Amino acid sequence: MADSDKAHTAYPADVYEAFDAFMQQVIKDVYDNGAKRAEFVALVIASGELLPMAWGRVRKTGVKELAMGAAGVVALRVGLRYLLGGPLGMILTGFTAATLVAFFWSNQKDVMRRVKPYKQVIRDSHEKFDDIQARYQDGRYDAGERALLVEGLLRRVIGEIEAPRPEEPSDKG
């Protein structure tokens, strides 16, 4: 197997080796690129597969608890991801968990319409990322080729996330 330390890379080594680190970099870059808050919050939700956990609470406690549950999950997800493994500065620059919660509460429709397409983008990119890793481990790609492919995939995912979403026609009703 090729030595991954020999390739010139634009990101930390773990971005090329683990999908979680790859997604963490996508989230960081989307935030750094000045994404709209709806894009960012929807991406955080989609990346954590948070929706099933939050919606499961509706049956038991109602809409207000759902919001608190979703907010708690989002805050926990953001906090753990970034406090333990990433850019702490992101949380400290004004887009705090409380801001995420408040934004989500007042813009649920806009955020939630983005979650499903983002989940598909994440699933597709995970499949492609795994394919790149398998080919690298089989010796079909060297470290430089893998780095180029992963960086290209990362840019493509960011482009799809930042692409404008069409408005839903049912919003007028």
Q: How would you explain this protein's 3D organization?
A:
With 173 residues, the chain is mostly helical. It has one domain. 73% of the residues lie in helices and 0% in strands. It has 10 helices and no strands. It has helices spanning 13-17, 19-32, 37-47, 51-55, 58-61, 63-85, 88-92, 97-106, 108-137, 143-162. Helix 2 crosses helix 10 and helix 9 (108-137) packs antiparallel against helix 10 (143-162). The longest helix is centred in the C-terminal third of the chain and has 30 residues, at 108-137. The radius of gyration is 18 Å and the shape is elongated. The N and C termini lie far apart (58 Å). 24% of the residues are buried. Residues 1-5, 50-69 and 79-94 have low confidence and may be disordered.
Report the major sheet.
Answer: none
Strand % is: under 5%
Please, how many domains?
1
Number of strands: 0
Q: Treating each run of at least 4 consecutive H or I residues as one helix, how many helices?
A: 10
Query: What global shape is seen?
Result: elongated
Helix content: over 70%
Structural class: mainly alpha
Rg computed from alpha carbons, rounded to a whole number of angstroms: 18 Å
- Poorly predicted regions are 1-5, 50-69, 79-94
Helix and strand pattern: HHHHHHHHHH
